[in-house]
Write a structure and sequence with these properties.
Shape: globular
CATH class of the largest domain: Alpha Beta
Strand order of the largest sheet: 2-1-5-3-4
CATH topology of the largest domain: Aldehyde Oxidoreductase, domain 3
Distance between the termini: 25 Å
Number of strands: 13
Radius of gyration: 19 Å
Strand content: 25-35%
Length: 219
């Protein structure tokens, strides 16, 4: 069977393409797919270099790969009803006031907003596996809202070029008391940084440096 594999960040740069196609036998699993990448422009993959996402979920080594699956290699990653009020991955500037307003709730006595901004360099250039990132942000929001007893949460991440001192990520949490709001907001941003398939490059004039990250958790 033929499988199309999406590539991001350093793997996309290495292959010189946004995806590669490989041939796999029926009954193939993730470790077979990774081995087959050595015959593509991506080249041999070493442990810890990436994880595989199948249909926008991180997959373990023995997870089956089927024809028609949406498959991606994920390198280390640098609103409405319910508690998750806003989830966005956008190329537009982020609005801190709007995110704060989104989580206000009659039950909440505390609102905490975390704003991650570009520092030290002229700009940051962000790339995302946007469809999967949105689903991951929503799942993180739902899980941490339940874990910390939050009234509402919002998670937004910018992609493309983010100039010096402008926000690239916002998370907000509201809760009945400040302790839950602070701990919930910290848990949200820690998980967004560790799990969302989003990557960044530091840009300072003509210099570009890809920021190393951590490999997302896989089953």
């Amino acid at each position: 069977m033929k499988v199309s594999v999406r590539l991001f960040a350093g793997l996309r740069e290495r292959a010189g393409a946004q995806h590669v196609e490989i041939e796999l036998p029926d009954g193939a699993v993730v470790e077979d797919l990774l081995a087959a990448m050595g015959q593509t422009p991506v080249g041999e993959l070493h442990p810890g270099e990436c994880v595989v996402a199948i249909n926008r979920e991180y997959a373990g080594a023995r997870e089956p790969v089927n024809a028609g699956d949406e498959v991606a290699l994920v390198p280390p990653v640098s609103g409405g009803e319910g508690p998750v009020r806003s989830v966005r991955v956008t190329g537009e500037p982020l609005d801190v006031a709007a995110v704060s307003a989104a989580v206000r709730d009659p039950r909440a006595g505390a609102v905490v907003v975390f704003e991650g901004v570009t520092r030290d360099v002229g700009e940051l250039d962000y790339e995302a596996y946007a469809e999967m990132a949105l689903e991951k942000l929503r799942a993180i929001g739902e899980q941490e809202a339940e874990r910390h007893g939050l009234c509402a949460v919002a998670l937004e991440h910018r992609v493309g070029t983010v100039p010096l001192s402008e926000p690239s990520v916002l998370v907000a949490a509201s809760a009945p008391h400040r302790g839950e709001a602070f701990s919930g907001a910290r848990a949200l941003i820690d998980r967004v940084k560790a799990e969302a398939p989003i990557w960044k490059v530091e840009v300072d004039g003509e210099d570009r440096r890809r920021v190393e990250g951590t490999l997302p958790p896989a089953p």
